[in-house]
What we know:
Elements: H1 6-11, H2 25-35, E1 47-52, H3 55-63, E2 76-82, H4 91-108, E3 112-117, H5 122-132, E4 139-140, E5 142-147
Antiparallel strand pairs: 1-2, 2-4, 2-5, 3-5
Amino acid sequence: xxxxxxxxxxARRSIRQYTNEPVTEEQIERLLQAAMAAPSANNRRPWxxxxxxxxxxxxxxxxxxxxxxxxxxxxxxxxxCGDPAASEHYWVQDLAAATENILLAAVGLGLGAxxxxxxxxxxxxxxxxxxxxxxxxxxxxxxxxxGHPAEEKEPRTQYDAARVHREGW
Length: 169
């Protein structure tokens, strides 16, 4: 079984440039397994995931988001979607945890990824719904562009002791 290290956490960086190498179906399934291993309030699991690998779909998604131009290069986009009816108060936190799990799993699989926020921007939500046919009541949370990295970034932490408060503010 794979073991995640603290160094793996520091290696998670936003990767926006990808090679032409496709992401395999096995890798996609592993990413989705990681997503669904995320914690969920009362185990409600208010998530659905749209997987886009067709160039036409990826290019159309890139057009819907001002910061998702990398989708024109990426071989894969996973769009985590939330069902607020399943978890009215905590679906956003649950989707954020699932998204972070995908980003960390990508590092472990030797892939690069970047999170492009969709929720709570109404224009992005509606645009994603239009491209992907997402039904009413389901909210596209973000786009995760994924591929084999064509750029390398050094691992890092952004630890700032001034932001740590003990026993109160």
